[in-house]
Write a structure and sequence with these properties.
This protein has 758 residues and is an alpha+beta fold. The protein has 17 helices and 37 strands. Bound molecules: alpha-L-fucopyranose.
């Protein structure tokens, strides 16, 4: 006993220091390629990819509303521009390090040249709406530099005092303006004839960048709002007036108010191993660049890297999805091309949904709003489009490819809108914000229900089927496709609960309950699989990346190990046949599926496949998923849904709450027998404020209840805690049920007196 607690103590001191340091992604070389090596930063509106060259710095940047297209053409998300900084003379032989610190959302580049230590700090501030690039050195007069700004659509760069400006209009009339303002320490920026700014023998300098468009998410204003020019000028003047230190402090404070809510340490001791047996997760791991850790990962377990990748998902969401902005697209908001893969759009048949799976459970509820607001802003145009395709229906749905003006292309994805509004229900389920549900969420849920009320086909025996659906992205177009049926089931369920919670529309609610009763339900086929189609024709050799008919297992709650074990087993047979390797997002989804099947070792096997360093370019629809050395997910090519889906998957392995109870450590792999997580959120307004486990058993647990109400827990081992009744043993762990009050905090420790009688 004593020995164990000493080990736990050493271990927690040790692991705390890992946690404190290991929030950094770093490299000992500048980036040479945008997609695989540059590091991203962003504030939900402006984003930058940093190369970090010594002699030639390059920051490619974006603004999330710079889109071609309109209501009838899908167009594509566009690149905005580039900042180039030439620093002639900096030799390239001295020491060099560039890093992205997830703990502060700051990038740093340090190098030595000619006996001078140079240092850069970059960040993208949400509170001040500005990107800041700050250059210092330990010797006065060390900087001679030329700064350029290039427009991705060919507009001429205008020079005005210490500023450079690019402005223009896209073919759809959207106006854009990007501007940098330079402040020099110990010198002045001089305009050159080639539209650049020159700095000579300065002590240091700071570049402030802001960019915007006249996009508005309001159809009633033809999707246009305020002219960007005045706004970005005001932003830059205000930012420069605040000065670097204040901007940095405000940025870090704002970022950490979200990021620091969750901390995670994983599996420090391997099963049967001792402290430090995790190889490169210890100090070794931190002394080698991230790409080398990736290369070593196959041979040396690196649980700290697995946790780092989880936190990276959270970093990327905070950086690409902030209140008041547009949702994260296929690449978050980072895009260097005017013809990006799949338009860098909002894909409705898995991708945009996956981007937001982590938002609520990883305690970033505020970052969910861009998606929720996007759904709302699309309603009217989607209603018009939908009525053209499906005359006479109420409500609306979507095609597969979608832009920011309601324009859409590729095939109709009939259950797409029902899948969108699952996010509305989830936001309510996690926050219990009834006022928001009533005023914002419910009317949208209801109109999508009305679409299906009008669109479903009733067979002579009363069964309701979705007519002529398609299981993304393969197989026939026919009635009763499982993907459609399950999503409609989920929609009806959420609607019924919403009407109950709000005590409204009783008659319609009962009608929807009756429709749900008559929906064609998931079926088990001849080889024990969950059928993708009503006809039992699934091919056991089918390895398709989409496993859409498992929606009911994840992200839907209709199938679960505890409530529908037969269907859960069929889902398992299907997943086994589909195999593990696939595209990036598909692997991330499979992690979530296996977590829901409570098979932690299988989820972990896929997690390990996900952490495969891949390079190169091109599109692969079947295999080749993994991550690049900047840890961005490779579909390939880069697609951010995998990063977000990975983070959601890790959360699902540690905690689930979709089956009317909070399940703790439901899918813990053998390799994560020890760990510590703080701040995950569960449905019902509960926070897993602190959970520590050792040898696969919970040793310490604190749950915070924000809204009160009963809390049901399912845990792997007996716990004891004040005012908590005895646990009930079941096939899947022990269950506890206790009443909570709003603001209440409930703590538990492992019960020592036997497994069943705490
Ligand atoms: C879906 C997927 C593809 C890709 C694209 C953006 O169509 O089938 O794999 O992720 O979206």
């Amino acid at each position: 006993m004593i020995k164990r607690s000493v080990i736990v103590l050493i271990y927690s001191v040790f692991s705390f220091s890992i946690q404190a340091q290991d929030l950094k992604i770093w490299d000992d070389r500048p980036a040479s390629t945008w997609m695989t090596e540059a590091y991203p930063m962003g504030n939900g509106r402006i984003g930058g990819m940093v190369f970090g060259g010594r002699q030639h710095e390059h920051v490619q940047f974006n603004e999330i509303s710079l889109w071609t297209g309109d209501e009838s053409n899908t167009g594509a998300y566009q690149a905005f521009g580039d900042v180039f900084i030439d620093l002639p003379g900096a030799d390239t032989t001295g020491s060099y390090r560039r890093e992205l610190d997830l703990g502060r959302a700051v990038q740093q580049i340090s190098y030595e040249a000619g006996g001078v230590k140079y240092h850069r700090e970059y960040f993208c501030s949400f509170p001040d709406q500005v990107m800041v690039l700050h250059f210092t050195a330990d010797k006065k007069g060390a900087y001679t530099a030329t700064i350029g700004l290039k427009d991705a659509h060919g507009a001429k760069t205008e020079v005005e005092g210490g500023t450079l400006d690019i402005t223009g209009r896209l073919e759809n009339g959207l106006k854009y303006d990007g501007r940098i303002l330079v402040r020099v320490d110990g010198g002045r920026a001089i305009a050159s004839s080639d539209s650049t700014l020159s700095i000579s023998q300065a002590d240091g300098f700071t570049i402030f960048l802001s960019a915007g468009t006249d996009y508005s998410n309001k159809r009633s204003q033809q999707w246009r709002g305020q002219d960007p020019t005045g706004r970005i000028r005001r932003i830059l003047t205000a930012a420069a007036g605040k000065g670097y230190d204040q901007l940095l402090a405000r940025h870090v404070f704002d970022y950490q108010s979200l990021f620091k809510r969750v901390s995670l340490e994983l599996g420090m001791a391997a099963p049967g191993g001792s402290v430090g047996s995790n190889g490169s997760a210890g100090s070794d791991g931190l002394s080698v660049p991230t790409y080398k850790r990736l290369l070593h990962y196959r041979a040396v377990p690196d649980h700290a890297l697995e946790a780092l990748l989880f936190q990276y998902g959270r970093y990327l969401l905070i950086s690409s999805s902030r209140k008041g902005g547009l949702p994260a697209n296929l690449q978050g908001l980072w895009n260097e091309s005017n013809t990006p893969p799949w338009r860098c759009d909002y894909h409705s048949n898995i991708n945009i949904q996956m981007n937001y799976w982590l938002a609520e459970p990883t305690n970033l509820s505020e970052c969910h709003f861009p998606y929720l607001d996007y759904i709302n802003s699309m309603r009217e145009v989607k209603k018009d489009n939908t009525r053209k395709e499906y005359p006479g229906v109420r409500g609306w749905t979507v095609r597969t490819e979608n832009n920011i003006f309601g324009g859409e292309s590729y095939l109709w994805n009939t259950p797409g809108s029902a899948w969108y509004v699952q996010a509305i229900w989830e936001h309510y389920a996690f926050t219990k914000d009834k006022v928001w549900l009533g005023s914002f969420g419910y009317p949208i849920l209801k109109e999508i229900v009305e679409f299906w009320d009008d669109h479903l086909k009733r067979r002579p025996d009363g069964t309701l089927v979705s007519p002529m659906g398609w299981s993304p992205e393969h197989g026939p177009t026919e009635d009763g496709v499982t993907y459609d049926q399950e999503i409609v089931y989920d929609l009806f369920t959420n609607y019924i609960e919403a009407a109950d919670v709000l005590h409204i529309d009783k008659t319609y609610r009962d009608h929807v309950a009756d429709m749900r009763e008559h929906l064609l339900k998931p079926k088990i086929g001849q080889w024990g699989q969950l059928q993708e189609w009503e006809t039992d024709r699934d091919d056991p050799k089918d390895r398709h990346r989409h496993t859409s008919h498992l929606f009911a297992l994840h992200p839907g709650p209709q199938i679960s190990v505890t409530k529908t074990p037969g269907l859960a087993n069929a889902a398992k047979v299907t997943l086994q046949a589909r195999g593990d390797s696939s595209t990036g997002w598909s692997m991330a989804w499979k992690m979530n599926f296996w977590a829901r099947l409570q098979d932690g070792d299988h989820a972990y096997r896929i997690l390990k496949n996900f952490i495969t360093l891949v390079g190169g370019s091109g599109v692969d629809y079947n295999e080749g998923g993994g991550i690049y050395s900047n840890l961005l997910c490779a579909h390939p090519p880069f697609q951010i849904d995998g990063n977000f889906g990975y983070a959601a998957g890790v959360a699902e392995m540690l905690m689930q709450s979709q089956a009317d109870e909070i399940q703790l450590l439901p899918a813990l792999p053998g390799d994560w027998q020890d760990g510590h997580v703080k701040g995950l959120k569960a449905r019902g307004g509960f926070e897993i404020a602190d959970m520590q486990w050792s040898k696969g058993k919970i040793v310490k647990l604190t749950i915070r209840s924000s809204m009160g109400g009963d809390c049901s827990l399912r845990v792997p081992n007996a716990l004891k805690g004040a005012k908590v009744p005895k646990g009930v043993a079941t096939d899947h762990g022990l269950t506890y049920r206790f009443a909570t009050v709003a603001g209440g905090v409930y703590t538990f420790t492992a019960a020592v007196s036997g497994p069943l009688h705490p």
